[in-house]
Input
Amino acid sequence: MPIDKKQIIEKESAVVDGIELTADWNRMFEQRVMHYEDSDALDKVRDTPGAESIGYCYQCGQCVPVCPVDAVGEYGPFRVYKDLLIGKDLFKSPELWKCTTCMQCLRVCPKQVDMIQIMPAVREEAVMEGDVPEELQEAFENTFEYGNPLGESQRKRADWIQETGSNVPIMKEKKEADILWFVECYPSYHARGKDASAALAKILNALGTDFGVLGTEEKCSCDSQRLAGEVGLFEEFAEENIATLKKYKFNQILVTDPHALNAMRKKYPEYGGNFDVIHYTTYLAPLLDKLDLKNTLNYKVTFHDPCYLGRHNGEYEAPRQILNALPGVELIEMGRCREQSYCCGGGGGGMWLDGFMADHVSERLSENRIREAVETGADLLVVCCPYEVSRFEDAVKSTGNEGKLQVKDIAELIVEAMG
Ligand code: SF4
Ligand code: SF4
Output
């Protein structure tokens, strides 16, 4: 209904509920109608199964300052939503691939606009249309062909055991164990991942854990491929891994990788895989007093919370308990830690999009994080996700911080303390 202007009393200044409202722009004598050129782009996303919540956005903007991608280039659900309002097609836009599904925005969004659902849903359509950045497509193809995104031979998946001289039983021979250790791809194939695997094997043996691995029967958990839009690949691999796991008798699955933890806890039950799954830090934290930690380390360390261990699966304490139990280790927290932790950039397919991201942001997320870690004065950045050692070691070099900061998996640090 039009406002009767005679009833309007203009004030020189106005403060309502503590908010200063004095300004010409705020004299709303007429009803304001906002016109957008095109809402087809928004409808197209909103009509995609799984992506409906994009339509809940009421543009409060709270998601932007917490988005790790916005720290290195303009991003966040609010910006994605605004682009849709002006008719930009998300299905064809580079913006589709920037989100790492880190979950920072969902933590603060009052309307539950859920990028963890929206991004995979829209990306799945883009993948079906073949609109995928080249390097991501290569990771998908490697996974399809070889069972891992690195493109390494499936037959060599357990070679790290011999190469590192580790004592690791294989379930095919052992048939049953208390703990089935799901090693994952980077800890099986990547040079620094193998170091962490050898360290974890040493700890499990020192604890007398009854454990075994799937070896060449294990395939990628595919959680990151799913979040990057390759849902079909995820389903195929989930069914295969579940069938393999069901061949053996065990009480608990121990995972090195928080992404595998996420897949097995949240998605595998949908495919009939109901397992008790635990991250290795959660498993080790209460057992550290059983280890002979005779070496004093003399390290100032800082710790990076992996998004898929912390925000996605609620584990913040176990890695800190471990660090606090190691002799001679002083933990200095970064400003962005725990629930507010920054993202390494590897989640949601980001692990295979570094080249693409370099063209769209001012610096890699891992570089931004390394600068923060260096600022704490720590000499060691401790991680507990297999994506991170390689990402952060590269970022230490590219930010010119070689010699100032080392990057180690938490298992490597425990082994150093064991001597
Ligand atoms: S926090 Fe949620 S409602 Fe607010 S702008 Fe971001 S997505 Fe929209
Ligand atoms: S999930 Fe993370 S990267 Fe994606 S929009 Fe939200 S805050 Fe940004």
